[in-house]
Design goal:
By secondary structure, this protein is mostly helical. The protein has one domain (15-343). Helix content is 63%, strand content 3%. It has 17 helices and five strands. The protein has helices at residues 15-22, 30-54, 59-84, 92-106, 110-123, 140-144, 148-157, 160-174, 185-209, 211-237, 252-259, 267-272, 279-284, 290-297, 301-304, 311-314, 333-343, and strands at residues 138-139, 262-263, 308-309, 322-324, 329-331. The strands form two sheets. The chain has a three-stranded mixed sheet with strand order 1-4-5. A two-stranded parallel sheet has the order 2-3. Strand 4 (322-324) and strand 5 form a beta hairpin. Helix 4 (92-106) crosses helix 9 (185-209). The longest helix has 27 residues, at 211-237. The two termini are 30 Å apart.
C-alpha cells in the first residue's frame, strides 16, 4: 500500500487553493446534525435500555448489545469531536452544549480535549513538535541513541496488545480524569466538571442496573469504543508513506493530504465511524462537519488522487514503528535490523 503523493500530483498546494474548494462544505447543516444526534445518542440510549431488559433473559444476549453500543459510541465520539472543532452546528453554544453531553457519554472532558486536539491539528507531521495528541513516534536515529530502558518502553508502548487494548482503556478511564499541568483554568475546570457528570451518570445507572452489571457493561462499552477509536487514529497517521518533516520543511497542506490517510471502509463501518476515514479532508479543514466529509471528497478531482487504504492494507501498518528520515518512510524493527546488518 503506497499512500505517498508525488510532487507531480494535482492536489491543492496553497491555503488559498484548498480554501476555495472546501468553503461550501464547511457550512453546518442543522437537519443533518439533528438527525445524527437522534440516531447516534438516541440509538445509544436505546441500546442501554435493551441491555437492562436483556439481563432478565441472558448475559449471552446482553453482551452482544453492549458490543454494539460500544460501536455506536464511536459515532457519538465523532459528534463530540466535531463539536470541539466548532463544526457540528453553526451555533458555538450548541456545539459547546452537545460537546459536554457527548463528552460525558464518552468519558472525555470537552475543553481540555479540545485544547489538546487543536495542538494535534497544528503539529501533525511535524517532527519537532511531537508529543501532544499523537501516538509516540521515534525516528530511527532517536531510537538507536536511546537507552535500553527507553527502547524497551517504546517497544512496549507500540506493542499491538498494549496500544489497542490496554492503552485505550487507560486513556479514557484514567488519564482523562486528570488535567495537564500547563492547561489553562477553563480546561482544568472542564476536567473537574466532566468527572462530576460521569459520577452522576454512573450513580444513576448503578441504581438501575446494580453495581456489578453496570461495571461489566460500562467497561465493555468503553473498551470497544476506545479500542476502535485508537485504531482509527493510528491508521490515519501511522502508515508506511506517511508525512513527517522538520519545522523548516513542514507544510500544513502537505501534512493533511500526504500525512492523513483515506481509510476506505465498508458503508456500515463508515457509518459507525462517522466518516472519519476521510481523514485527509478533515485535516485539510477541521471546520467541515463529519456529515459533509464524503461529499467534499467527491467534489474535486484532486481528492481522487489520494489512494484509498482498505482494511486489509491497513493491517500492514501494525508492523511500522520508526520514522526513517532518510527514506521518509515508517519502517519496522525488522527493517531496521536488516538495514544495520547490511551497513555493518
Amino acid at each position: 500500500m503506497n499512500n505517498h503523493h508525488s510532487p507531480a500530483d494535482h492536489s491543492p498546494k496553497s491555503v488559498s487553493d484548498w480554501k476555495a474548494i472546501v468553503a461550501e462544505f464547511q457550512k453546518p447543516v442543522r437537519w443533518r446534525a439533528n438527525w445524527q444526534l437522534l440516531n447516534s445518542i438516541g440509538g445509544y440510549i436505546v441500546l442501554w435500555v435493551l441491555m437492562y431488559f436483556s439481563l432478565n433473559v441472558s448475559w449471552w444476549l446482553t453482551i452482544p448489545i453492549a458490543l454494539l453500543a460500544g460501536g455506536l459510541l464511536v459515532r457519538v465520539f465523532i459528534i463530540f469531536h466535531d463539536c470541539g472543532h466548532g463544526s457540528f452546528f453553526k451555533s458555538s453554544l450548541a456545539n459547546d452544549i452537545w460537546g459536554y453531553i457527548t463528552g460525558a457519554l464518552t468519558f472525555t472532558p470537552y475543553y481540555h480535549w479540545r485544547w489538546e486536539h487543536t495542538q494535534h491539528h497544528a503539529t501533525a507531521g511535524n517532527l519537532d513538535r511531537r508529543g501532544v495528541g499523537d501516538i509516540w513516534t521515534l525516528t530511527v536515529e532517536e531510537y538507536l541513541q536511546s537507552s535500553r530502558w527507553k527502547r524497551f518502553s517504546y517497544r512496549l508502548a507500540r506493542n499491538p496488545f498494549i496500544l489497542f487494548f490496554i492503552a485505550p482503556l487507560w486513556v479514557f478511564v484514567v488519564r482523562h480524569r486528570f488535567f495537564l499541568p500547563n492547561a489553562k483554568w477553563r480546561e482544568k475546570a472542564s476536567v473537574v466538571f466532566m468527572n462530576l457528570a460521569i459520577i452522576g451518570i454512573a450513580a444513576g445507572l448503578i441504581a438501575i442496573f446494580g453495581f456489578w452489571p453496570w461495571l461489566i457493561l460500562q467497561l465493555t462499552v468503553i473498551a470497544v469504543a476506545a479500542s476502535a477509536g485508537v485504531w482509527l487514529f493510528y491508521v490515519q497517521h501511522q502508515f508506511e508513506d506517511a508525512y513527517w518533516e522538520r519545522t523548516e520543511d513542514w507544510n500544513y497542506t502537505a501534512a493533511a493530504m500526504q500525512g492523513s490517510s483515506f481509510y476506505k471502509l465498508p458503508k456500515v463501518l463508515q457509518w459507525f465511524s462517522g466518516n472519519i476515514g476521510y481523514h485527509h479532508i478533515h485535516h485539510l479543514s477541521a471546520r467541515i462537519p463529519n456529515y459533509n466529509l464524503e461529499r467534499c471528497h467527491r467534489s474535486h478531482p484532486s481528492f481522487a488522487e489520494v489512494p484509498p487504504m482498505t482494511i486489509w492494507a491497513s493491517l500492514r501498518s501494525l508492523h511500522f514503528r520508526l520514522w526513517d528520515e532518510r527514506s521518509k518512510k515508517l519502517i519496522s524493527f525488522g527493517q531496521l535490523k536488516r538495514q544495520r546488518v547490511r551497513g555493518s
